[in-house]
């Protein structure tokens, strides 16, 4: 009996042992498979990051790939369940690297556990990557200060979003109403884009930071509790009305009262139908007269061109400010050279004859020539610079234009074509609709003018620094850096003009109009070098900060020395008066960043060239400041 009981006990023990062993094996297998799966996911994250780096980091600024573990890479943060010790990439932060190009599909979208993406203050372009919707756990999206374009994404893919900043890009189209589904959203910044349409009717209780300023939005601001929380600074620079903005009644053209003596009762004059008919007839007659005049005018131009005369209203140079001025005086050219020379890679659909008969408007006079806005028959608008004091022979001129046209960068104004004859030299470039930085800073400052905000100014400063840095990397000296040569696009991105042109001018003393930007060691334009460019750029930074013109000449011929004035003002205990009143008025909270930028500018205008930084050092320091705005 006891023997049978012992046998049963041993059998039960073995069965229990076998069961425990079986369970242990199953659990071990599951853990092994789970860890293997997690490892595969982390490898997928690494592959996506490396593919992203390959596409946008041609300068190899990101130190990724030095380790097989992406969690150890700069700007990458990983998290995962502590029990399993499995990690996934949850944050990607690479602000101000800079990165260039578009974000390709199949890269960042592989990071399915991503929570934070911060690529601000770079040079990323192209459309928003549509497959980023795969990152459904995304909470923070910081893509401001780039060049992303196209429509905004459909935000419904990220229900957990808390922070969104897509400001200072080139996004267009309408603001999606799916934003209203983001119930956890705390900040939403879409300012300084090209968004159109009306504001969506949304009401997010959690939102406490919001701006759509400086877009192309129109219509009334919806009267919701969310929109009422924000003042007019969040909506300015659009065609919006209502709430904290002007009344929509004042803005509507439908409220204009028509005098009763024009449209009155049918007993006291003509009926509405009769008046409409008369007006239509008058318009038709006027249009016929206009077409006849244009036909006769074009016919006369054609005859003049065939006889070798230019299409102008007189011979000789034009007077400044004439809206119908011409940059084409009587040109005596050999037929062999009577043509525009278009530069490599530029598509064109006009010739010299069309350029010469285009209506021209004087844009400004500079140290190396006068610039004009030319509207061609095709509707294309270009800028034409009529060069002066050019003594270079044809072959040297052509070789130089060919060389500098190959220097291409998004912050350099591209050359389209040139014309060379013994009497005239013309250079054709793209036309920038917002004019120059000089005009924006010192132009009309009436009650309706919009001052340049602090973040716009530092953005322009960095764009310009990137362009000059690129020139120096390609052994090209600008030699004539000033605010009138910094042109501004519709999206307030800057492009540098006149680069490389000083090598063509005669070695004459520096003109008075650019003395304010001239480094002390430069006696004529041809003596300029990289350190002289840095000095001129430093004066430009001071101009952005102070709002003062460095070239404001006094009656006795002496110029206003902006660096010396700043140095004197720095010795005063109260330094607030150094900065532009418009900056202090609207951006008082950025005083610390302004002081940092002021110190950078002062280092650039050091009297000794050896004490001045390089443009790369300047640009990197400015990007650090911008990253904290």
Automatic annotation (TrEMBL):
GO MF, any single term: ATP binding
Gene Ontology CC entries for this record: membrane
SUPFAM superfamilies recorded: L domain-like, Protein kinase-like (PK-like)
Domain of life: Eukaryota
Pfam families per UniProt: LRR_1 (PF00560), LRRNT_2 (PF08263), PK_Tyr_Ser-Thr (PF07714)
InterPro entries reported in the protein's UniProt record: Kinase-like_dom_sf (IPR011009), Leu-rich_rpt (IPR001611), LRR_dom_sf (IPR032675), LRR_N_plant-typ (IPR013210), PRK1-6/SRF4-like (IPR046959), Prot_kinase_dom (IPR000719), Ser-Thr/Tyr_kinase_cat_dom (IPR001245)
Keyword Transmembrane helix: yes
Keywords: ATP-binding, Leucine-rich repeat, Membrane, Nucleotide-binding, Phosphoprotein, Repeat, Signal, Transmembrane, Transmembrane helix
Domain Protein kinase: 357-629
Location relative to the cell: Membrane
Segments traversing the membrane: 274-297
PANTHER family xref list: LEUCINE-RICH REPEAT RECEPTOR-LIKE PROTEIN KINASE PXC1 (PTHR48007:SF4)
The protein's name: Protein kinase domain-containing protein
